Amino acid sequence: MDPDAIKRAQARIDQAASGRIEPAALDAALERAREQVEALAATTAELEATLPSRVGDAVEDGLRAQVLPVGRNLAEIRGLMNQVIRRLERVEGDLLAERHARVDDLALLVDLVTSGWRGVEQRLVKIEQRLASDDGGAAVYRIAG
Predict the structure, then answer these.
(1) What are the angstrom distances between the C-alpha of 13 and each of 5, 8, 18, 21, 24?
(2) How large is the average pLDDT for residues 57-64?
(3) Which terminus of the chain has fewer CB atoms gathered within 10 Å of its CB, N or C?
């Protein structure tokens, strides 16, 4: 073997050994890492236990904040619809009353026309009876056309 190659190999080994961590420092680092992993596991367990309820509460609060104005709008629309329905019912009642009044007016008009024609008919019957009886009354001449 080449003595230079041996020197180079020895230099690399020395260089690698100088950068090596001592076992005590390695054990301390591993211990700190274990403690941090345990702390992380505890925090994760705590989050797993409380996160669903926190998220649920946050979603519920968000929905409540967003739905509240919609609920108010729906209540206002419901009130306006009830008012429109009441007004339509009132208009319908007024229209029905007006229709009944017109029917009553028409019945009265028919009664008046009928009684007027009865009166005319009775007069005509009396006139015809007088004309038919020749009791010496006035002479009636018929005009032929």
Answers:
(1) 12, 9, 9, 14, 21
(2) 84
(3) C
Query: What whole-number distance in Å separates Cα of residue 81 and Cα of residue 112?
Result: 46
- Which residues, 6+ apart, have CB-to-CB distance to 126 below 8 Å? none
Burial (CB count within 10 angstroms: exposed 0-12, middle 13-18, buried 19+), residue 85: exposed
Residue ranges making up the domain that contains 29: 3-91
With H, G, I as helix, E, B as strand and everything else as coil, classify residue 59.
helix
Predicted confidence (pLDDT) per residue in 103-119, tens digit? 999 999 999 999 999 99
Phi, psi of 135 (to 5 degrees): -100, 20
The CA distance from 114 to 111, in Å, is 5
Answer whether residue 58 is part of any domain. yes
Distance CA(50)–CA(58), nearest Å, equals 12
Residue 108 lies in a domain: no
Q: Using pLDDT thresholds of 50, 70 and 90, give the confidence band for residue 68.
A: confident
If one counts the domains in the chain, the total is 1
Look up tokens 């076992």; give the residue. 23
Whether 7 is covered by a domain: the verdict is yes
Q: How many CB atoms lie within 10 A of CB 127?
A: 11
